[in-house]
Amino acid sequence: MSVVPAPSRIGALWQQRMQSMREYSIVRDGNAFEAGFSDSVIFSSEYDRARVFLDTLLDRYAGVTFDTVFRGREITNEGGTCFSLESRQEYSFLPLDSEQLRTRLLGDLTLVHGIGPAIQKRLNARGYHSIPDLLEHPCFRQQAKTVLSCITGGDSSSIMDLAGSRHSRSHPSVLGAATLHEPEDFVFLDIETLGLFSRPIILFGIGVIERGHLIVHQYLLRDIAEEQAALIATMDHVSGDRPALVTFNGKSFDFPYLMDRLAYYGLGYPATIPHFDVLHFSRRRWKGQFPSLRLAALEREILNVIREDDVPGQMVPEFYESYLRSGNSGPLVPIVEHNRQDVVSLARLFTYLLEVAHGGS
Amino acid sequence: MAVADLLRLLDTNPVFRARCVHRQVSVPEPPHYGSLDAPLSPALESYLDQCGIRLYSHQCETINHARAGQNVILTTATASGKTLAFNLPVFCHLEQDPDARALYLYPTKALANDQLLSLEQMAQYTGITARVAVYDGDTPQSKRAAIREHSRVIISNPHEIHHVLSWHAKWQPFLSNLDYIVIDEAHRYRGVFGSHIAFVIRRLLRLCRHYGARPQFILSTATLANPVEFAHALTGQECVLVDTDGAPHGRRNFVLFNPFYNGISERSVHQETKDILVSCVKENLQTLCFTGSRKMAELVTVWSRDDARRISQKLADAISVYRAGYLPEERRVIERQLKEGTRKGVVSTNALELGIDVGSLDAVIISGYPGTMMSTRQQAGRAGRKGGESLALLVAQADPLDQYFMHHPEQFFSRPHELAIIDTGNPYIVSGHLICAAAELPLREDRDSAFFGEPLSCLLPDLGAAGLLRKTIRGWVYAGRGRAADVVRLDGVPGESFRVMCHGRLLETMDRGQAYREAHKGAIMLHQGETYVVNEMDLDTHTIRVTETDVDYYTQPQKEIDISIIGTLETRTVNNTPCFFGEVEVTEQYTGYKIKRGDTIIGLEPLTLPPLTFRTKAFWFIPQESVELTVTKCGGDLGGGLHGVEHATIALMPLYVMCDRWDIGGLSSPSFGEKGEPVVFVYDGYEGGIGLAEKAFGLLPELFTAAHELVRDCRCESGCPSCIYSPKCGNDNQPLDKDATVRILRELSHGPEEADHAPIAAGKSEVQAA
20 to 30 A from B566, CA-CA: which of A88, A101, B193, B768? Predict the structure, then answer.
């Protein structure tokens, strides 16, 4: 009995409804008041520029094959195939001094449950200056023992949990836990997606440090069908001995998004990985100094990076959709470069914060 | 014995006596207790003992079926202990299986909160760990994770489920152990909304299967004609029916009260309602009065208080209105006063029939048929306390359905014949949920056709071509721009949507059809009881701008309808009349609107709007030449007759198919198509159809008979709002020919015959039901 009337209208109807949905809003230039509230606004001049840029790209790359535009290789795993790009640059990472962290932690009595700044002051006055001192204290003895074993024997995750729960997620001791890692442990991650939630990830950017170089691996979907392979390739990078994830706003966005996509394909989760979210540390350090704490703003202020021909992050879905529709690789060019630059800036910003706070002398 | 006194008053007072056209009495029924196949656990047994509860037969049946692993649908009366019937098997299972979880779905937040209290109480008494929690739009972000992880009983609503399904990874602990889904008030999920909910439930089941769970259902509904079919359509599962009510009740009187008993009414329905309410309160009966609108509730209250004040101020103060806008505390006061007996009369709108927790009362007055028998029964079910005698009284309006019942009480008190419709075949609705499902897990034709049926394989390539889905080795993956669940609204069939703005603030959104009908330029529009005038309708940006206004007139759009038949799906002959069901394309052209004050037209304005075209399902029939001859021989107007047939048929459709007459459209023409045959079309007013015309097609003989009786028995001369006038007629009820209508309907319901001299049946009757 069920007759499907005019099917071609249905797809078009939904498409029309979707078109009117944007996950960002366009605001008048200079309306900093509105722009300040959320990441999901874009200035109208920026929007107009990006639309013109998109047309230029479609023109410039018309008829140019994908393989001519991107020099990479196809990789294959149990999830299928996807396209892999690699770039490297020299990168110096000062040796990290974990002793400084341990000293700081041992002197921080407030890590013990029940001790706040006021009690710490009183305890200091009575001669308790370090956690080991507290082992003699009648009340805090037991608690101090647990904290001490965490500081002396714990890995970065447990130290981050300890400092994070007693202080805040952006506390210097949380960042300091990074000194327990070798530079080779860090996995810098940034993803580009088709939307804010529950849609495919179209580009995975992973930065790793190898022998004085920062290598950026990018897994690009030539079609949505390649997402699974790209997910598996990405997760291979965090399956090492003691990987540590570094992201910008990844605790709220990139990581849960990644987990969600793994669940979507019925793929397993990795065990808990230490995760340094540079946004939290940046906020603590630069809050109020710059009008914005977005990665693009910080790289401009701190790293003196000026991007040219960039695609605004919010418009990545539109650019990618335009590639899917037309088959023209042009719109992918700024997405790939945008993502690569994000990974590089993320790594540099992390290094900067770490060296300032914990660099070896 | 106060009820008996009032009944005596109705019998002796000449004004009342004339209007009471029927009284149905049902004798008291003692409780019927049941037995369980297996005893409950000691904890639950002692809970029942402590509360002094002995289980009725329908509760035992429900528990036995549920514990045997069957899905159950329970359809017993208001206040028959349905809640306990599904809470017991759920708790029994929670106690046996420490990992088990249960989901309760309620249509409103208020009901969810009421249920929270009763579940918490049960958990506390029995010591069974349930950690009952409500999870809906009001649940703070900070509590959500803990509820998902630890709560064993979660109470939510279908809208919330629609939105959380895409976060299923976070719900894994709950979904993988979900053993029971309880859907209370399931009859609310019918029509377009119900069809959406049916797919939300299928999406939920699909994810449960993904995580290895196979939940069992317990549904409860008000009385329907097709509970088993309905439950199957809603859940996709076979359900066992429990419908024999074991709860006791006292002597019940149901009075049909017709202010239009002699064809006209000197006083308004509200005035008549007020008189009865005051009489009830004077007799010291606690009375609940349901009215059709908020304004009517207010008026009836004011007038009743004025009348009662002549006796005493105290009596006047005992009557009050129960508003939707009341704060919870204000409601609780009224509820408490009703329970204590200091408050005697409460007037409320139909909409509040569910949100009100006042227990049972002595009398219920229903002012105007509320649209469905189901609501009528639910409202009337409020009458009857502790086995005492009770009264329910329906005050009829000048509407076709009201008047039909007044003339045909046997129809009113017969077995339910309203079918609750869920259409899982509407491609516009299915496609939306396919998009959502593809965003939850890749869609696979082989596995998932079990949930989405036959349309799945036709629709996927189409959605793929539009770029919304991409085919991968894992199945179809969602790749659209918006969040899928945000694009799919559960309360309508997708279409272009218009935004109604007032001073830059969004009032509401409506689809194009509704916008053309209610929010064209110049229209007087109602929104949540406030009046607005439409200043501008921008078709390019889909924006309607309105401002508040306070006028004493209203507007009524004029439209022309054109239909073309796309394909015939079924054919049948009813009393020699060929009838068809199939797919049609409807084009509605709004040509202008009338400005009216009361019934007077004070202005006429043209409208220029593009035509509105949609495909839907319809039934149509072609009256034979003999009918044409009969009509023309008597000097009747065939066009006016067919138009009357169209209106009467649509007016009575809700009698058989649960819907609003606004959900259906119609067209009649004395010469349609190339052959120039007379034809009447009745179609679903939703893109793709929603199953209304389809169900009615199967019931055409009954529908024709009822329509014939309606028009024939109406005492009016040449048509009136009680028979063939339609409030939504786009042609201003022109032309109409009542005599011709009766002749055509007679032939449709009896076949061709010589002149009919059936007497007008509108006498009084009293029936003693066993």
Answer: B193
